[in-house]
Amino acid sequence: MATKIGIAGITGRVGTLLVHEVLATTEAVLVGGYSRNKEGKNIPTPLFQTLAELAAVCDVVIDFTHASTINQHAKALVQTQCAWILGTTGISPADQKEIVKASHKIAIVQASNFSAGVVLATRIAAQLAKALPASSYDIEIVESHHRQKVDAPSGTALSMGKAIAEARGIELDSMRESGRDGITGPRKTGAIGFSSLRAGQIIGEHEVSFTSADEQIILTHKAFNRSLFAKGAVQAALWSKSHRPGLYSMENVLELE
Ligand SMILES: NC(=O)C1=CN([C@@H]2O[C@H](COP(=O)(O)OP(=O)(O)OC[C@H]3O[C@@H](n4cnc5c(N)ncnc54)[C@H](OP(=O)(O)O)[C@@H]3O)[C@@H](O)[C@H]2O)C=CC1
Ligand SMILES: O=C(O)C1=N[C@H](C(=O)O)C[C@H](O)C1
Fold it and tell me: Which N-terminal stretch is annotated as signal sequence (predicted)?
C-alpha cells in the first residue's frame, strides 16, 4: 500500500519542493500539509488546521520548519503514532532530549542533511580525523548558506564536527571554536573551528580542512539544488514505514554499516 505522507512547513523553500517529490513518487500519496497561515496559498493539497489533524491521517510527516516547533510537533506525532522525518536544524539540547523521548514511541529519521553525498563526506572526514594526529592537523569547518538562514553553524557543520570529535575521542563542546573575533589568542591544539558565511542564495556548501605545517587536505560538498534534500527526505519517509520506534539517521536509511 502507498505510504501516506504529510508535509509540515509546506510553504517553505524545502516544503514546496517536497510537494513535487511526493507527487512524483509512485509508492507515496500526498495527504496534505500544515501551514500556520493558510491565506492566499496556492498549494495543490489540503492544508490542515493543526499538525495533529494532519498526522492523524498520515503514516509519516516530513518536517522542515523551525527549531521552535520541536516540542509541539513531538507531542502531536507521538499522540497520533505517526512517523517523523525531521530535517529542521538549530535544535537546542533540551529539545533534542524531547526527540529522543519521542523515539521510544514512534520511528524518527532525523538528519541535518538528507543528501547521501553529505553522509559519505562526513564519514570520510571522520576517517581523516582519526588517522591524522590532532597535535599537528588543525580542523576547520566552513559553511556557506543563503541570506535567509536563521541558525549557525549549520546543522550539517555541527553533525560533521560531532563525527570528527567522536573519531578523535573527544566531546565537541570542549573543543569547539566558533566565530572567532577580536583578540582570540593562538589556536588551541586540537580545536575544531567553525565559520559561517551568509550571502545571496547559496543553497548549502560545507568544507572541512585538515591543515598541518606541511600540507592541507580539503573536503568540499556543494548542494546545487534543494530537491536533493527533498528526495532524501522522501526516501527516508518510505523507509520509515516498515521500521519500529527508534531514532534513525540517514546512514540507517542508506543502509551503510
Ligand atoms: N536536513 C536537511 O537536509 C535540510 C534542512 N533544512 C532545515 O529545514 C528548516 C526549514 O528550511 P527552509 O525550508 O529553508 O525554511 P523556510 O523558512 O523556507 O520554511 C520553513 C516553513 O516552516 C514554517 N514555519 C516557520 N516557522 C515556523 C514556526 N515557528 N512554527 C511553525 N511553522 C513554522 C513556515 O511556514 P508557514 O509560515 O506557512 O507556517 C515556513 O514556510 C530549517 O531549519 C533548515 O535549516 C533545510 C534544508 C535541508
Ligand atoms: O537552511 C538550509 O538551507 C540548510 N540547512 C541544513 C543545515 O543547517 O545544515 C542543510 C543544508 O545545508 C541547507
Answer: none
Give this prediction's pTM: 0.98
Catalytic residue among 145, 162, 221, 231: 145
Residue 140: HSE in the Cβ half-sphere, 13 Å Cα cutoff = 14
Domain 116-222 annotated CATH 3.40.1800.10? no
Atom from ligand 2 closest to the CA of residue 143: 12
Select 3-114+226-253's CATH number: 3.40.50.720, 3.40.630.30, 3.40.50.460, 3.30.9.10. 3.40.50.720
For residue 121, which ligand has an atom nearest its CA?
A: 2
| Dist CA 226 CA 229 (whole Å) | 6
Which ligand gives the minimal distance to the CA of 116? 1
- pLDDT of 42: 86
Rounded to two decimals, the ipTM of the complex is: 0.98
